[in-house]
Amino acid sequence: MKTVTLTVAGGVVTHGEQVLVLRSARYSDLRLPKGHIEEGESPEHAALREVGEESGYTDLEVVADLGEQTVEFDAYDQHTIRHEHYYLMRLRSTTQQARDLADLKFTPEWMPWEQAIEELEFDEERRWLLRGKPELK
User: What total number of domains does the chain contain?
Assistant: First the structure.
């Protein structure tokens, strides 16, 4: 089995008492926004860029660095080792930018923290929400 190593960054984005999640058009599951860190790009910049690309929300403020974790899984006949870095972000404006067609595979949704924690597809992403929620108090 082939092994692939990735480094990604993402955001736990808040607006009032709600958190941003992305619903997959293909599978209808819920995820947090994240994506690859490009060469020469800082994890924070990548997280801001990826949130904007996947959700259309670009007027964001980074509130806290939530840290890093490594996730390993097998899918599509390969073993993936993914190094993740997440930031807690606050929405400053509800204005959305137009998204690239490639990023329309996700629909952004706002939901209460507890609902998002319960409905996220992956435990690894639930941990990011649990890390981010106490930072808001």
Answer: 1
Q: Are the C-beta atoms of residues 103 and 27 closer than 8 Å to each other?
A: no
DSSP state of 15: E
pTM of this structure: 0.91
Give a yes or no: residue 121 inside a domain: yes
Show the domain range for 34. 2-97+105-131
The span from the CA of 131 to the CA of 75, in Å, is 26
What are the backbone angles phi and psi of residue 48, rounded to the nearest 5°? -60, -45
| Cα gap 10→130, rounded to integer Å | 15
Mean pLDDT (the chain) is: 92
CA distances, 82 to each of 8, 25, 74, 109 (Å): 7, 23, 11, 25
- Within a 10 A sphere around the Cβ of 6, how many other Cβ atoms? 13
